[in-house]
Structure formats: C-alpha cells, structure tokens
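Q: Trace token order:
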Amino acid sequence: MLNKNNFKDPICTKWKELSKLNFNYYDSITEKKEQANFKVFSNKVVKYLKNKSIVVNAGHFIPNSDDYEDIGRNPTKTWSLGCQLVKSLKEKNINAKISLMLNDIGLTKKSRKIIFKKIQLPKKFKRILKKHGLTEKDVLPCGWNKEVIFTEKKLSNRIEHLIRRNKINKKYEKADNYCISALVMYYLDLIEQKIDTSIFILPKCSWQNFQQSINLFRKLNKSKLDHIAYFETSNCFI
C-alpha cells in the first residue's frame, strides 16, 4: 500500500472523474475513438501494423519507495495485456517490444532517490514476461540513459535540459506539466530508436494528458510517429 508520507501532495483525487470515458481505444492514424474489447483491439493492431517497428508501453504504476515490489492490480493487468499484445505481434513476425514508465512525479525527493537506486523490472513483471514467452530482451530501455525503465521525472528533466541547450524547439516548453513533458520526451526517444508506432495500454484517467501530449508533439515534430492507446483500468495505483 502506498504511503501518503512519501508524496509531496495527496495521491490524485481526480481519477474518478477523469476515468469517465465513452471509448477505450484511440488511433491517431484514423483519428477514431471507439469502444472495443481487448481481443478486437489486438486483432486490429496485428492486422494493420505489419512492416512497422512497434513499442507497447504498459504496466504504468506509482512506485512504492517502502516496498518496490508492491505493485497494484491495475498496473499488473495492463502489463499482462501489454505482454499478450507483444507476443501476438511477434508471432506474426512484427518487430515489437514492450516498455515500462514509472509515475514518480508526485514522490518526495527522498522517496524518488530510493526508487532510483532500486530501479529494475519488478519481479512480478518479470514472471509475467516469462509467462508470455518474453524476456528482458523484449523490453525497450530508455535510449539516452539505457535504463530498463522510463521514469516521468527523468524524462521531464531531460526535455528541459534539451530546451535550455537549444537542442530542440523552445516551443516544447508548452508541455507545461510534468506528465505531458515526460510523454513528449518519451516520443522523442522513440523516434531516436527508430520506432514507427507507439502503443499505450493506460488507465482511463490518463486520456487527458495523453491527448494533450500527442497534440503538442505532432504540432512540433515532423517525424512520423503514430499513436495508439487502449484504456483499461481506472488508475495506476490501485
């Protein structure tokens, strides 16, 4: 169980309202928002993304600095679905990997420091990989720091660093909250790693930040990166 003393502010109280969506599948290629079960979604992805390099981001969770292996049922479910999808893609000889991003934005500096020392795939997630015939070689690491897990704070700091050094357009400053800037930096990292399609399996309450991040990214970046999202579970901490 997450310890409220390890957070700068109370754990998100808006998730119930934010998770009220009338769709659970978004595709930037068609601009459609649909309602589909996971089997239908998976079949569509496998059918239409041949000859693409794909990364499925799943398992998004808030780390517990008191017990790093304490993973909630919602992140466990999205990670399992992500592994299922990657397995299906690989069986069709599609170049696919899975990736993991931690939601560490709300942690105190002390708690985040503890997490950064422990950062690795949780044992539960390794077991789910193995269950679906995958290994850690099927996990895409962060391109610029080579860590096996992307973390929102490091991603957000990275984009600020690149802006200050004039390495990227200053208009990226419009990513004015940590979650959005972290997602935009993740997309930039995927481009550097020659990825064609980014798939997220996310809690429903993430839609607003996800939508804002891809809208900003597509305005500022000419490189082609398609975005697909499947929304499952209500949040990333239960």
The longest strand covers residues 197-202. The domain at 23-231 is CATH 3.40.50 (Rossmann fold). Residues 162 and 168 are 6 Å apart (CA to CA). DSSP finds eight helices and eight strands in the chain.
